[in-house]
Amino acid sequence: MKIASGADHGGYAVKQDLVRRLRAQGHEVIDVGTASAETSVDYPTFAHRVAAMVASGEVDRGVLVCGTGLGVCMTANRHRGVRAADCLTPHLAEMARRHNDANVLCLGGRLLSEDEAWAITEIWLATPFEGGRHSRRVDLIDEESEPS
């Protein structure tokens, strides 16, 4: 699988560990940065890069890490066709894939250990989208909303 990965300084250590483990499993990983935990950087920069790659089909999926996972998730979901999910447990990761066809995983680098983040990532990668009634719902996500 081709995966884009990015993080800010708060997610740098977890991202580095995930990139290493993903490559060891044979995935092609494009690391868009950041390159250090030492310098404060803006998470939207990296989230937009990964989300754009997923939205364009350049990669199959994306993995983003910031301090809580919230900021990168909000940013990534601004891209049409991206379904980013901030997952704190393996169960959330499984449901994000099974029912929502999440194509970007967001993680909290200050909330999860490297092993916890890896366990969540493994489930997220291994879980297929169920389709069926969920397909219609996923299609509705990208429909233009009507003003209230």
List keywords for this structure.
single chain; 148 residues; alpha/beta; Ribose 5-phosphate Isomerase B, Chain: A; globular
Would you kindly provide a written description of the structure presented here, covering whatever features stand out?
This protein is α/β, with parallel strands linked by helices. It has a single domain, classed as 3-Layer(aba) Sandwich (Ribose 5-phosphate Isomerase B, Chain: A). The chain is 44% helix and 16% strand. It has six helices and five strands; from the N terminus they run E-H-E-H-E-H-E-H-E-H-H. It has helices spanning 12-24, 43-56, 70-76, 90-98, 114-126, 133-141; strands at 2-7, 28-31, 61-66, 84-86, 104-108. Strands 2-1-3-5-4 form a five-stranded parallel sheet, sandwiched between helices. Helix 1 links the parallel strand 1 and strand 2. Helix 1 packs across helix 5 (114-126) and helix 4 (90-98) packs parallel to helix 5 (114-126). The radius of gyration is 14 Å and the shape is globular. The termini are far apart. The mean pLDDT is 96.
Summarize the structure in short:
It is built from six helices and five strands, in the order βαβαβαβαβαα.
